[in-house]
TrEMBL record:
The keyword Membrane applies. Belongs to the UPF0065 (bug) family. The keyword Disulfide bond does not apply. Gene3D superfamilies: Bordetella uptake gene, domain 1, Periplasmic binding protein-like II. It comes from Propylenella binzhouense. This is Tripartite tricarboxylate transporter substrate binding protein. CDD domains: PBP2_Bug_TTT. Residues 1-26, 39-63 are annotated as: Disordered. The chain crosses the membrane at residues 70-91. Residues 8-17 have a biased composition (Basic and acidic residues).
């Protein structure tokens, strides 16, 4: 059969004009009919001619091509959008995929550096990447914190934070927010602080020390590097009621050397530092700052139980920059729980005088905030004024 002639109603219309004015929604320039009905004798548009064999309608090749091209573009755009949304999540879930830098606010050696190397070795083995310790000593941790605060929140720069950095707001008008510019991950170890004197000092108890200090008002001095030991030493003198001169040192090792030589009267020193000196017989431990006795010195009473409430416990923990994604925080904290907390690496530190801590992100954040407030209040009572760093 030949093709039917077009009625007058269709004369002068080409395929495109029919496509634009059809009853269904448009895709490009073709029609997807919602319902196809016609009156007897009305010719079909070319794009919807009846098939010669079988029922239904056939579409023109041109229409199929247009729909196919648009559908392909839709798939490509959809995939691109999906990949764009998934990219940040993928970047976080495969963390770490390169080496991680861990800034330490002290020089090599000492409790801070010891804790840092212990935890970085553990994380590196557990996560299959290198965790590099980068020592940035200076200004009681201010140098390290100033460098760290602008790090990208991608998990590849972390900070081994020391309790001395929670003391900084008591001394300085800081160029950063000590709570808001960090993301706490875990507190790793606790460093009890002890009242230490030279082995030849005439006092062997806290009571004898206080009596001697009151009897020699111009002869008492204490050395310090900064942080909790400094404020603990000043607080002890204040609550015990004797005068003492504070002598600053650039490093705690220098202060210890001066104590052993007898050139300063006493120090507030971490148990990790004091252990070797007490065992070697060069120094004596008379009391413990804080409300809990040190595990490595169970026979040394706290200053608080003797009537001289003196806070001064040190600690060390891992923090990330501000806005560190929760997925990375969770991964690091979970890894620490599985490979470090209560395990051999942390227990090895305990043998050196650093007691294990088990505080996760939320608990550690609360500890930092509480300590900052506590130290500011103590500094205020001691008459310490803030200065610019």
């Amino acid at each position: 059969m030949g093709r039917r002639r077009m009625s007058k109603a269709h004369e002068g219309h080409d395929d495109m004009s029919l496509a634009r004015s059809g009853p269904g929604p448009m895709i490009g320039m073709s029609i997807v009919p919602e319902r196809c009905t016609r009156r007897r004798g009305t010719p079909f548009p070319r794009a919807l001619e009846p098939r010669k064999r079988g029922g239904g309608y056939k579409k023109s090749g041109r229409s199929d091509m247009r729909v196919g091209r648009l559908s392909s573009w839709g798939i490509v755009l959809g995939l691109a959008a999906g990949l764009a949304l998934a990219a940040p999540a993928a970047a976080q879930t495969d963390f770490p995929n390169r080496s991680v830098r861990v800034i330490v606010p002290t020089g090599p050696g000492g409790a801070t550096d010891t804790t840092a190397r212990s935890v970085t070795d553990t994380l590196g083995q557990a996560l299959g990447q290198t965790f590099v310790v980068e020592n940035q000593p200076g200004a009681q941790g201010l140098v390290a914190m100033t460098s760290f605060k602008d790090a990208a929140p991608d998990g590849y720069t972390l900070l081994l934070m020391a309790s001395s950095q929670s003391v900084l707001p008591a001394f300085y008008e800081l160029p950063y927010d000590p709570v808001g510019d960090i993301t706490p991950i875990a507190r790793l170890s606790i460093a009890p602080v002890l009242l230490m004197v030279n082995k030849d000092f005439p006092a062997n108890t806290v009571e004898e020390f206080v009596a001697y200090a009151k009897a020699h008002p111009n002869d008492i001095s204490y050395g310090y590097q900064g942080g909790p030991p400094q404020l603990a030493a000043a607080t002890f003198a204040s609550v015990a009621g004797f005068e003492a001169l504070g002598v600053p040192f650039n490093a705690s090792a220098q202060a210890m050397t001066e104590l052993i030589a007898g050139r300063v009267t006493y120090l507030m020193m971490t148990a990790e530092q004091a252990k070797a000196q007490v065992e070697g017989g060069t120094l004596k431990a008379l009391g413990t700052a804080g409300s809990k006795r040190a595990a490595t010195f169970p026979d040394v009473p706290t200053l608080e139980e003797l009537g001289y409430p003196t806070y001064g416990t040190g600690w060390f923990g891992l923090v990330g920059p501000k806005d560190l994604p929760q997925e990375i925080v969770d991964k690091l904290w979970t890894t620490l729980q599985e490979s470090y907390i209560g395990k051999a690496p942390q227990q090895a530190l305990a043998a050196k005088g650093l007691e294990p801590a088990t505080d996760g992100p939320d608990a550690f954040k609360a500890i930092i905030s509480d300590e900052i407030e506590r130290w500011q209040a103590i500094a205020g009572k001691l008459g310490i004024e803030k200065k610019k760093p």
